[in-house]
Design brief:
mainly beta; 7-stranded mixed beta sheet; globular; disordered N terminus; 17 strands
């Protein structure tokens, strides 16, 4: 299985939010556009959107770098690993969290050179034992819906302590735009 990495350059706004330098063209719902292939997409974690009552939100961007529009529908799959590559078990729940709204899955068309998004959130408040080195997430593998999981998956650097999240994360469905809807 091959992995693709995307480094995304972001700028800090006056309000303290990170915005991608890549400006999104409008994405819209449609069922007449072909499904995306992995070869035309790049995925990256943008930055943490901060905490809400002990929860942390991480927006992800899905950039269509292909030659034509394509569509995705559903939830991404996430697998977590330490920096040394050891898998970290986690329960991934779909839908609303304390940080992100939980839009129902719809077909999202991603125009050429445009982006779509999804959000991942986790709690950062569980008490843990002193040594949590086996829980330190170093990167996440991301599978996108409608794309054969035996093909390439995207990989993003993402550092957090899975023990402090009680090995649970939430993810939203893929939605149009550059920022997942927040609560």
């Amino acid at each position: 299985m091959k992995f693709r990495r995307l480094v995304l350059i972001c700028s800090l706004t006056a309000g303290g939010f990170f915005l991608p330098v890549l400006t999104p063209a409008p994405s819209f719902a449609s069922s007449k556009v072909p499904e995306c292939s992995h070869a035309q997409l790049e995925v990256a974690a943008v930055s943490s959107s901060g905490a809400a009552a002990g929860s942390v939100g991480v927006p992800f961007l899905i950039a269509n770098t292909g030659k034509s529009a394509c569509s995705l529908r559903g939830y991404p799959t996430l697998s977590f690993f330490t920096l040394s590559g050891k898998p970290i078990k986690a329960t991934v729940q779909h839908g609303r969290s304390q940080v992100f709204a939980g839009p129902k899955p719809v077909s999202v068309t991603i125009a050429r050179n445009a982006v779509a998004t999804f959000g991942m959130s986790y709690s950062d408040g569980f008490q843990v034992a002193k040594d949590t080195s086996a829980c330190k997430v170093g990167y996440v593998n991301i599978g996108l819906p409608s794309i054969d999981p035996s093909h390439e998956r995207s990989q993003a650097v993402l550092i957090f302590d899975m023990c402090r999240s009680n090995h649970q994360v939430s993810t939203t469905s893929i939605e149009s735009g550059a920022t997942p809807r927040v609560n």
